[in-house]
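Bug #77: duplicate submission created two jobs. Keeping one. Sequence:
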Amino acid sequence: MTRDTATGLNNIHDRREFVRRLTETIAWCRAVGSLSEPRASLRMCKPTQEDLTSQSTQVFKVCLERSRRLSVSGRRNLSPVADLCGGRLLAYFPDDNLCCGTAEAESQGFFDVDNIPPYDTWVWMVQNVRTFAYADGVHGEMDANYLVAWVPSDFIQLAGAGLAVNPEACILWLDTLDDGFVRSLRLMGFLA
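Kept job's structure:
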């Protein structure tokens, strides 16, 4: 038996930061996303190699670069979104990944060979702990953090095709989970 316990958006600062990042993600992806080029169009804010030491740092730097690019293009002080604007949120569990490439093929490159959603869609890194029990009654815990990414409405079908063939289920629609983070988003009105 396993159970995940994710950290929710428990304070006003985290809730505001999530909404700011989601707002910028939606604005950016709507401007640069192209169904004719799903493999490349949402991969402009790629993290640099030295950022690979911390998942949270990677996500933060992608969000910072996206924010910088929006600012340079004159798109500052965006009105906060109150919903997902027709898109969907997905969860990517990097430590559960088998890197088999089937999601990449089925999604026409929306996911890469490592099942990673496009960098420009990244919104948040959720701190999550998975508890489990072995048959002999011994219990354990492990980190099972996950990335939250926003999928533009035009890309939902491609992303869904990738999720459907992902054997290890390391990519899932976020609204299929039930943890503290997801409950926070439900309370904020972002998930039903």
